[in-house]
Amino acid sequence: MVSTRPRVQVRRIYDDPDPDDGMRVLVDRLWPRGMSKENAHLDEWCKTIAPSTELRTWYSHDPAKFDEFGRRYREELRDPERAADLDHLRELAGRGMLTLLSATKRIDLSEAAVLADLVGKTPASH
């Protein structure tokens, strides 16, 4: 039986695009510094799914705060607009490879990593 689990990965927007990226979606609220729209090779920019400014400022990419950041961000994703965006990302992942992009230096400690975890699960499992 073929797995129906969505295929999703996270990458830095500054990394060169890969032919296996599939659909490339930027999930940062702010446009990445020094990145032209042409060089981004984006299919979509889903900035409304990004963490709130308050949460992003509190987190400040401190690895010690990542677990709590993930918990708080998951709470924010219950907001109807963000929940709809999350459903949209799940739909995209259901069609093929989805690459969530962020300008964050530590992509494994970013909102993209939290989103990838959620996109890879059924809605009832989060």
From TrEMBL:
Organism: Nocardia nova
Name the record gives this protein: DUF488 domain-containing protein
Pfam families: DUF488-N3i (PF22752)
InterPro entries recorded: YeaO-like (IPR052552)
